[in-house]
Write a structure and sequence with these properties.
Order of helices and strands: HEEEEEEEEEE
Number of domains: 1
Radius of gyration: 21 Å
Mean pLDDT: 88
Number of helices: 1
Shape: globular
Bound molecules: copper (II) ion
Number of strands: 10
Low-confidence stretches: 5-9, 11-25
Distance between the termini: 71 Å
Largest sheet: 10 strands, mixed
CATH class: Mainly Beta
CATH superfamily: PCu(A)C copper chaperone
CATH architecture: Sandwich
Length: 147
């Protein structure tokens, strides 16, 4: 009888372990918050987009690329003041620190949406795909907002 109990217990542990490891493989450590595009006149050659990217993992995560069918291309920029001039510096990629976040916000890092293919009015949405090193890409919905 004790042998049967032990076997059942082992089986239970095995099932538990299997379900946990299954859950681990499905766990995506990246979450997105507050994704929006700054409202601008329809004739502008580029729009700025912002979002906060959270990294719930123990290692830094690198955002390598962003793409959308609504724009010709998407660049990573950083706004800063250099010699009293407001400039934008292109970035090759963006790093989200382990157990941390990267906030893209006005006057700081942003996505530069080059050559919109359609006018985006207040409240309208567009999908942008974010590509990460070592993690699957994420499709994010951005809403046009007034700043
Ligand atoms: Cu820019």
């Amino acid at each position: 009888m004790p042998k049967t109990i032990f076997l059942l217990f082992s089986l239970f542990c095995f099932i538990l372990q299997t379900s946990f490891s299954f859950a681990d493989t499905k766990f995506n450590p990246i979450t997105i918050e507050n994704a929006w595009i700054r409202l601008a006149p329809p004739v502008v050659p580029a729009l700025a987009a912002y979002l906060t990217i959270h990294n719930h993992s123990t290692t830094d995560i690198v955002l390598t690329k962003a793409e959308s069918t609504d724009f010709n291309s998407i660049e990573f920029h950083r706004s800063l003041i250099k010699d009293g001039m407001a400039i934008m510096e292109a970035q090759n990629d963006l790093m989200i620190p382990a157990h941390g976040k990267l906030a893209l916000a006005p006057s700081a890092y942003h996505l530069m949406l080059i050559k919109p293919k359609r006018a985006l009015a207040l409240g309208q949405t567009t999908m942008i795909t974010l590509y990460f090193q070592n993690y699957p890409s994420i499709e994010v919905e951005f809403t046009v907002k007034q700043y």
